[in-house]
Amino acid sequence: MDNGACSYRRFLDGDDNGFIEIIKDYKDGLILYLNNFTENIYTSEDLAEDTFVKIITKKPRFSGKSSFKTWLYAIGRNVALDYLRRHKTAEISYDELPDIKAEQASLESQYIKKEDQVTLHHAMERLNPQYKQVLWLVYFENFSNKETALVMKKSVRNVETLLYRAKQSLKSELNKEGFVYEKL
Amino acid sequence: MKNYKDMADAVFARRDEYVASVKRKKKIAVNAGLSLCAICLAVLGAFGIWQSGVLTPDPNVIGTKPQGYTEVTNNSTLHSLSSNATSEGEHSDATEIISGNTKPQSTTSNILPTENNKTQSTDPAEKPDSPAVKPTKPAVKPTVPQIRPTLPTLPVGPQPPTFKPQGSPTPGVPPTSGDTPKPPVIVTDPVETEPWHPDTEAPPIVTPPVTDGMERPGSDSNTALPDEPEATYTEPCWTQPPCMEPTTCSPTTAVLTDPTDPLAGQPETAAPMDPAPPTEAVTTPPGQNIVKGKVFDQYGNPVKGAVVSLYSGGTLIDSFTTQSSGYYYLTGFRPFGKNYLVITSAPKEYSVTGAKFGFDGGYCYMDLICNKK
Fold this sequence. Notes:
The structure holds two protein chains of two kinds.
Chain A: H1 3-12, H2 16-38, H3 41-58, H4 68-86, H5 97-111, H6 115-124, H7 129-140, H8 145-152, H9 156-177
Helix pairs in contact in A: 1-2, 2-3, 2-4, 3-4, 4-8, 7-9, 8-9
Chain B: H1 4-52, H2 75-88, H3 95-98, H4 115-122, H5 280-283, E1 290-297, E2 307-312, E3 315-321, E4 327-331, E5 339-345, E6 350-360, E7 363-372
Parallel strand pairs in B: 1-7
Antiparallel strand pairs in B: 1-4, 2-3, 2-5, 6-7
């Protein structure tokens, strides 16, 4: 049982500090993951907050078949999809665009420690949303293909195919900018 | 961007709002449920009260009187009225009050504008300020119970002076012991009260009033009909009987009046007969295709074993063998055909000597007379 599962168990037993620990551990990664859907760091932050509110109010059962992070990201993905279903078009004003970029860079600097991964994350912004998701979950969250399939609600085979195409697309994007990422 | 503490505070704040809203919704739901339960209980209570009959209109209450019920004063009031009437020497007719089964509009109360009051107002012998009118006051009390129309008898004795017919045999005289006043017959239709003219009209049909059986028809010359004539049924005499040879028939008794016949003048039912006559003669409705009769000897004794046959145009229609009662019963009689009724077989000690023909209640009958050797 990982730390997230223990914290959630403590929260269910009545300890609110357990949920605070969950927020502390998984907030940034969830926001950056949801940013792959919304492409707006503020909206992603709100969606992450909605995800935590949904968990703290509904108190869904965590069976432990997967990691707590996988389970949390799956819930966040559903919240993001619901949001996108209600808001078909992205509402981003050009005035907010510099702040969004700054906030996103700040969050990336906090969450992504390695410089080469930051360059890779910047290159991912021009990819297909599904490519961005699978690349984020595999290369930044270190999810396995099975866990990635659980979060994205796809089969493992689908995830593998999607990951292969995402790598090819990312390589082409990096080649355009003159970067060569050997781990891809 | 929010740090994790700000986000945690926001999350817990939203959770508190959510819990509060849930409690509020639960409270509203509980209140709504309680209100619904209260309404249901009220409806059930009302239904139970309605089913218990508490709210059912009581026929004994004035104003909710159903049709056919008689509204009169109770016995005590009636006695008081009767005592007043007795003291005033007024004659009243109690049956006018209680005969509500056949005439509800005239049976409400003695103070209502019924025929009683009309009679009082038209009676010259009645004084308008007479105390006999005063007893109507207790009847207007709403608490006065009523006597149902099924009241079998009326209190014998003085009766309220609500009705004083003209020509009363003993006006103003209270009834004495052993001489109970006979209330007049209640005629429901005033048309029937018109005198009957026996020369021009048929005797009127008098509807027997539904009273307590104390009425005596014709006791009051003003309200009752004249004595009903004896109801007799007159059978129309057929000048030419269609079935048999021309004979005579009596218009009144439908029995031949032969002075030599020991059974002459007696109705058919008066003759000695078997206790179990043919049932067909009883159950079959009257019709002209039936001929019946009796075979007897010159002494009036029924002849047993005589075979009576009905022929029409030479064809045997029906045959009957008499029993100990001597009666026979044949069907297939043709009123306008040519019929022959013969005794095809008789005991050897008898010989057919005559016949009597007539009608009885729509039946054509012929009594065959055998002569005992």
